[in-house]
């Protein structure tokens, strides 16, 4: 890395004050102090702080994978923190299971509803918390309690209708009632608007206002900024497993918020002068595949094209469509000059397509298999040379070479991939995909969840490969990465790819606005024209 | 990371689960024997004394070859999270057609045997292939289709025997195979090692076949691209798919090979014992194969060992009736072994996972602490 590039994971220069002055004087209902949680190879949470007061809708925002769900699982007793403290009404507690959490007055409304379709609303609500009289189910008192709760919070649902006849918004209301029925004072709503249409969102927000007025605390998890600003009283921003901002919504500046979420305040990796683009190596025209509504792009040899966007706008599906895992329903895909729209994954890889998948554990590695087996998995070269045989020696030699060259910390090539830390696993994946000297590399969030050292190595590898003439399609939500590595950038929003903009014309602020849709997409030349 | 990760600990944990399983099974059987009022010590001793007699051992080994083939067939599918529950049907329908083909041909000995084997392999593969196609085309769970195809096989066999292959037979079975279609016995091989068998006991030639096929399967699993793809598909189907291993192709190939091996499982009996296929043909080996594969942890060596154990248990059970102890106790013991295997592997797996997590956590803590926070270069 060039000398003027500071480490990208140092804290932002001006961390927001942890407590804003407008804080109401009520004592907190929930307090999480310095929570940390590690999974093998990944730090999911570190030094996470959260203070939730009664009578507030408290938004927890952050990208997918930022650590929101881990934090909520800890609060709901589904996971045990490795460090830190959890306080309820000022008392330190240990929640060992969701049952503990429910008993302590914490309720969770999952993104995916957990309702029995063929039971009535009443039956669903009392399920698992039934009252009984002389060993018999006491529907009457259950019904009375439900009506009471329903009236108090203004959540109107017919208790006798079966759930299968309810719409999504109503089902969600039943989920909320379920939680309230069990006496929750703190409600966790995990991405509650993800499944709702706009009208239902408004209804939900009205319901939340009712809960707030009754002095409950609502934790609202989301990555949609407009909703957060509309509904919440207080915002906590989470990025890379830690809380990076905490302030009253009234004081929140949307731009600053979006920068905090996607990390635009951090200095970018140094851009390097391009050696000049060669012929087009990857081209898609009007590509359509599931949530990908329209993707037109061109990547030249010796170029990095960035696809920036907030997670969940179709980037993962775009990558899957290009690798051949997801079927292309319309449009065309070319590798070099060859039409590969109808070819399968193996054939595309043979033509020089390589991929660093976004989810290392799901798509890149077989964790229980050894390092050399994992290298074998992704090396077209080894496969081709071995024909139908596994050349163990060649695979081990290549793995050893990667370990030495990329400084991968591994005791031998025969350990399972699970034994490596996240950063070392990722270096192995990147090295493996590059080892076959591919023509096109798809890199989806190549440095997510890896430590600083590995991040620098991976960026360097990508730049070197680009300079050697590789065409790279980089999908990332990290502004630093996009602006620091890419030559041109296209923004993906709601399944559509914008026209390409030279990275030099973008500032973190502008890119952030494009990604969140607060600035209309550039009406520039069509994608691909350079 | 520490070198403890290397082979030593791996071997230990490979043995830990089966040992734990056998221990649980032994405890349960002992309790069972006590409830029926038999002395566990005496019972085990009797079984052991009878079981290690030379003729018993030979019989156990012969029996185990059947379980070995059935176990291999099941294990292959287990390796990629498929469940071929239909080894029983594949094995029996293959045995029938092999018997019919063998009886109707007149060929020199080695060729005759080869043709019979080929017919058995192809029949088993076709029968298993039906389930594979249903899964690939229509998403029908292979657990259901292979299981139900067992019943179809039973009906088809009954029909074919009654109407085609044994229509004019008094015994209700296919015509007896000529000597050229019978497996040679390996007594001569034993004799060359200075071992002689008591009268009436013979070591079947199928044992040699089991060794050859076992080695071939082992080699395929560990040294071929197919074996590699099979392993990765089982460990992480999503990663396999993302790297161009076509799941549908893998399902079809694996089910065909599994069915082929299942077809071989009927041959030790057919070519070394009964020489004909009738309604009284020994059955049940396909189901035992599931247990054998589970106990053997899906590796050829493990399956060989567990097949030998099952063969030994079944043979030594024969003495129990004479002693007035219900020999079903051994069947229960086998069942308990299978359940304990599942439990034991789960226990060992959890212990392993916790150990891995701890190691990694320590490692992460160490690297994070030593990681330079600032500039990398």
From TrEMBL, chain A:
It comes from Streptosporangium longisporum. The keyword ATP-binding applies. Residues 30-265, 275-519 form the ABC transporter domain. Residues 1-27 are annotated as: Disordered. It comes from the Bacteria. Residues 1-21 have a biased composition (Pro residues). One of its GO terms (molecular function) is ATP binding. Pfam families: ABC_tran. Keywords: ATP-binding, Nucleotide-binding, Repeat, Transport. This is ABC transporter ATP-binding protein.
Automatic annotation (TrEMBL), chain B:
The keyword Transmembrane helix applies. The chain crosses the membrane at residues 65-82, 111-134, 146-167, 199-221, 250-271, 329-348. It is a multi-pass membrane protein. Its main location: membrane. InterPro entries: ABC_transp_permease. Keywords: Cell membrane, Membrane, Transmembrane, Transmembrane helix. The keyword Membrane applies. It is found in: Cell membrane. This is ABC transporter permease.
């Amino acid at each position: 890395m060039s000398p003027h590039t500071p480490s990208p994971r140092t804290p932002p220069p001006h961390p927001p004050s942890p407590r804003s002055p407008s804080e109401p004087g009520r004592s907190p209902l929930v307090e999480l102090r310095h929570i940390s949680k590690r999974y093998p190879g990944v730090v999911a949470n570190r030094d996470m702080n959260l203070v939730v007061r009664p009578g507030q809708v408290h938004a927890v925002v952050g990208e997918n994978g930022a650590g929101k769900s881990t934090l909520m699982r800890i609060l709901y007793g589904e996971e045990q923190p490795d460090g830190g403290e959890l306080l309820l009404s000022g008392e330190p507690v240990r929640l060992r299971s969701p049952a503990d959490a429910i008993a302590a007055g914490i309720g969770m409304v999952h993104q995916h509803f957990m309702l029995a379709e063929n039971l009535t609303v009443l039956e669903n609500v009392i399920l698992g918390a039934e009252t009984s009289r002389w060993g018999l189910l006491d529907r009457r008192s259950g019904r009375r309690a439900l009506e009471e709760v329903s009236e108090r919070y203004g959540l109107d649902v017919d208790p006798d209708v079966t759930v299968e006849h309810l719409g999504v918004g109503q089902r969600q209301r039943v989920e909320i009632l379920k939680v309230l029925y069990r006496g929750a004072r703190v409600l966790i709503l995990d991405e509650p608007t993800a499944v709702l249409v706009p009208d239902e969102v408004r209804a939900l927000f009205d319901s939340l206002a009712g809960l707030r007025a009754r002095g409950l605390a609502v934790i609202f998890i989301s990555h949609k900024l407009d909703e957060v600003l509309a509904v919440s009283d207080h915002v906590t921003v989470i990025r890379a497993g830690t809380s990076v901002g905490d302030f009253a919504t009234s004081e929140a500046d949307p731009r600053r918020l979006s920068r905090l979420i996607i990390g635009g305040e951090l200095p970018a990796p140094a851009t390097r002068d391009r050696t000049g683009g060669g012929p087009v190596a990857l081209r898609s025209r009007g590509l359509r595949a599931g949530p990908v509504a329209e993707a037109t792009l061109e990547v030249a040899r010796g170029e990095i094209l960035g696809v920036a966007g907030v997670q969940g706008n179709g980037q993962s599906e775009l990558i899957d469509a290009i690798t051949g895992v997801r079927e292309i329903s319309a449009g065309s895909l070319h590798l070099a000059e060859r039409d590969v729209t109808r070819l399968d994954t193996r054939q595309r890889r043979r033509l020089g397509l390589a991929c660093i998948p976004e989810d290392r554990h799901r798509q890149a590695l077989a964790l229980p298999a050894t390092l050399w087996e994992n290298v074998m998995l992704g090396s077209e070269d080894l496969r081709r040379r071995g024909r139908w045989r596994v050349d163990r020696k060649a695979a081990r030699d290549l793995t050893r070479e990667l370990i030495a060259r990329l400084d991968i910390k591994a005791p031998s090539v025969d350990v399972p991939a699970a034994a490596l830390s996240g950063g070392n696993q990722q270096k192995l994946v990147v090295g493996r995909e590059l080892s076959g000297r591919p023509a096109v590399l798809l890199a989806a969030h190549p440095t997510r969840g890896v430590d600083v050292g590995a991040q620098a190595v991976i960026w360097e590898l990508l730049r070197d490969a680009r300079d050697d003439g590789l065409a790279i399609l980089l999908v990332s939500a990290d502004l630093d990465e996009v602006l620091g590595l890419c030559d041109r950038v296209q923004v993906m929003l709601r399944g559509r790819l914008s026209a390409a903009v030279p990275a030099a014309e973008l500032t973190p602020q502008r890119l952030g606005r494009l990604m969140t849709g607060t600035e209309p997409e550039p009406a520039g030349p069509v994608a691909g024209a350079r | 990371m520490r070198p403890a990760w290397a082979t030593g600990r791996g071997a230990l944990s490979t043995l830990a689960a089966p040992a734990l399983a056998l221990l649980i099974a032994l405890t349960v059987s002992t309790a069972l024997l006590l409830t029926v009022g038999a002395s566990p010590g005496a019972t085990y001793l009797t079984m052991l004394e009878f079981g290690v007699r030379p003729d018993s051992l030979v019989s156990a080994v012969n029996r185990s070859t059947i379980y070995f083939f059935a176990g291999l067939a099941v294990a292959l599918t287990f390796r990629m999270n498929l469940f071929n529950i239909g080894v029983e049907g594949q094995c029996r329908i293959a045995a029938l057609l092999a018997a019919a083909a063998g009886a109707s041909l007149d060929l020199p000995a080695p060729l005759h045997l080869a043709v019979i084997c080929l017919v058995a392999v192809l029949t088993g593969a076709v029968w298993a292939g039906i389930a594979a196609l249903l899964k690939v085309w229509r998403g029908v769970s292979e657990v259901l289709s292979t299981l139900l195809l067992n019943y179809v096989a039973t009906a088809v066999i009954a029909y074919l025997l009654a109407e085609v292959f044994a229509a004019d037979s008094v015994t209700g079975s296919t015509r007896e195979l000529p000597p050229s279609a019978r497996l040679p016995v390996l007594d001569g091989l034993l004799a060359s090692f200075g071992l002689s068998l008591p009268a009436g006991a013979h070591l079947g030639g199928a044992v040699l076949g089991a060794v050859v096929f076992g080695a071939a399967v082992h080699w395929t699993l560990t040294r071929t691209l197919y074996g590699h793809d099979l392993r990765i598909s089982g460990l992480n189907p999503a990663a396999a798919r993302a790297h161009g291993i076509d799941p549908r192709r893998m399902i079809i190939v694996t089910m065909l090979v599994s069915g082929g091996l299942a077809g071989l499982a009927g041959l030790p009996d057919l070519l070394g014992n009964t020489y004909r296929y009738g309604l009284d043909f020994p059955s049940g080996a396909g189901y035992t194969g599931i247990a054998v594969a589970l106990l053997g942890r899906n590796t050829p060596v493990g399956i060989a060992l567990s097949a030998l154990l099952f063969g030994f248990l079944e043979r030594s059970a024969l003495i129990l009736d004479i002693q007035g102890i219900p020999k079903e106790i051994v069947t229960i013991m086998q069942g308990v072994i299978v359940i304990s295997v599942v439990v034991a592997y789960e226990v060992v797996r959890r212990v392993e996972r916790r150990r891995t997590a701890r190691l990694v956590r320590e490692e992460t803590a160490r690297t994070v602490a030593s990681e330079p926070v600032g500039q990398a270069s």
